[in-house]
Amino acid sequence: MGISIFAKRGFLGNHYTHIVPGSTILRLSGECRGSQVAEYIGAKLNPTEGFENDLCIFLKGYRMEYAKPGDYVDFSDENFDRLSAKLIPRPEINVIAHSQYAYNYLTPKLPNKTVLIPQQHLNWENVSREKNKKLVGGYIGRPSNISLKINTEIKETLKKIDIDFIIAYEWETRQDAVEFYKSIDFLVIGGYGVLPSDLWQVTPTKMINAASFGVPSIAFMRVGYQEFEGCYTQFKTMDDLVTEVDKLRDDNYYQAYSDRIKLRAEDYHISRIGALYKGLLCQNQQ
């Protein structure tokens, strides 16, 4: 008996080619919580046979028609109404939440047993980096009109205080993202593109990715970031952003901050997250 994971595969694409011409990975949850986890823990990915006696995990309910009592549906960032309509009539199926806030949100709303397995960070190799002599900030994500507007404003604002800012839209692999985080000294996460109904889905994954390299994050506060509270800095205005970036110029302040968040990010290393997935199998066999 092993673990089988069912997930729609990630693929390269770009819904906004009029903004940037390159590709980025789409269905990122399928890649991170499907392909990467299966690769690391040695699980089967989208098997067509031989999974009947396995503990099965269905990402966002993909191929949930095969679910048997005791199996798991990984809610991830799926639409709550759409997936809960399938789960509520089947309380014998368990649920995986991808963040502390999602766990708190889902638990009272579903009759299904819910467990928390956070998103792993992407720095599997525990790569270290050195602070640049001249601070470099950055943003990584998928392109959109509002994202380009906000990040262009951030870039222009930081340029006035002699700070470079990299906007990374064109990336394809985990290694591409690793190279991005190695190149920057701080990450900026804006407050755009999130509807009130989507707030429970917001996770601190990007800032945890950054922290795994010792890179501080400055972010527009979201309730979903609460599990990483104290390990990132909040901003509401461009003046706030400038103030916080200026603090990072001090090497002693920066190093202390960097060491603290890097230690916290160890909780999200793939080895620890993989152990949580394997723990589901142990519980199932008891």
Describe the fold and architecture:
With about 290 residues, the protein is α/β, with parallel strands linked by helices. It folds into two domains: about 140 residues; about 130 residues, Rossmann fold (3-Layer(aba) Sandwich), CATH 3.40.50.2000. The protein contains nine helices and 13 strands. The strands form three sheets. It has a six-stranded parallel β-sheet. Strands 10-9-11-12-13 form a five-stranded parallel β-sheet, with helices on both faces. The protein is elongated, with a radius of gyration of 20 Å. About 40% of the residues are buried. The model has no long low-confidence stretch (mean pLDDT about 95).
Element-by-element helix/strand order: EEEHEEEHEHEEHEHEHEEHHH
The profile of the biggest β sheet is: 6 strands, parallel
* Straight-line N-to-C gap: 13 Å
Q: Tell me the β content.
A: 15-25%
Structural class based on helices, strands and sheet pairing = alpha/beta
Q: Which parts are unreliable, with pLDDT below 50 for 5 consecutive residues or more?
A: none
Q: Tally the helices: what do you get?
A: 9
Helix content: 25-40%
Give the total of domains: 2
**Biggest sheet, spatial arrangement of strands:** 4-1-5-6-7-8
Query: Given the C-alpha coordinates, what overall shape results?
Result: elongated
Radius of gyration: 20 Å
Number of strands: 13
Mean pLDDT: 93
